[in-house]
Amino acid sequence: MDSTATDRTRPTYARARVPFVCDAGAGATGTAASTRRREFLKRAAGSLLLPAFVSPLLAACGGGGLDGDSDGETVVVRLASADNFRDVGGADGYPTADGRRVKRGVFYRSSALTLSDADKATLGTLGIAGVYDLRTPGEIARAADALPAGTAYATINIDGTSDYLMPAPASAVEAVAIMQTRNRGFVTSESERAAYGALLTQLASSSSGAQLFHGTAGKDRTGWAAALLLSIANVPLDVIVADYLLTNTYSQASIAARVDAIRQQGGDDTAASAAPLFNAQASHLQAGFDQVEGSYGTMTSYLTQGLGLAQSTVDALRARLVV
């Protein structure tokens, strides 16, 4: 799903107020779901979520102040030609359930790196030594990465197919079901598990420089990879979901452009049916976590049994991720 930004004029070092998008479906049902997610996390990570624990993301959803500057603002690097580029560690380093923080500047995630010259120069200042492209060969052929000189490049085809073809759902409900199935496939598909296992193994073994991984929109394949890393770091699941939803903020303009293009071609009903394919919804990611619980019981079992990671690999990733 290509959500490349249309403005490719210059990079911006934005001292921006970064909104943390919350699940609009909260309430009695949301509370029950949150309780279940927290219980799953406790089993997965083997650590206790203290009742007083409040993260910056959850505080931004309605309870307390943001970490960072006194005015609640943080400094983030934005790439105009790769709108969903961001640090896996968040704006200030996500807090973990055991009182530590995710280290920034280690792993980055992004939409496709079809970069302007200015954005390529900006990327070159961040010490990124390696890029992992998670797209299919067809997607890469249509929009190849443009990287700073000297950056190592590798492809890991998560889908395991020659190309990704955009579905044409008959309704928004069907589109949501498609996205939930896609996220469950990251757990149930043997080839996709092998691909994620290869990605995490290579990220753990990278000895120098930061690493970046990306898909096309930087939402689904990329979002699952980021969710796994944050899970390994012992970031609370509520925060992981909120981080996933930030795609709706970072890629707001390009999402709207894609939906509008469909509207121009097929009308309002067709656009409304397709919109969930481009938006991040909590239920999409939650479907993947529910599948982990259903198939493996805990995230640890999914990582070691499902993805085939050695415990030493998980430990190496955690050591790189937290401070």
UniProtKB/TrEMBL annotation:
GO molecular function: phosphoprotein phosphatase activity
InterPro entries, A to Z: Prot-tyrosine_phosphatase-like, Tyr/Ser_Pase_IphP-type
Any one Pfam family match given in the protein's UniProt record, by short name: Y_phosphatase3
Domain of life: Bacteria
Family from the record: Belongs to the protein-tyrosine phosphatase family.
Name by which UniProt lists this protein: Tyrosine-protein phosphatase
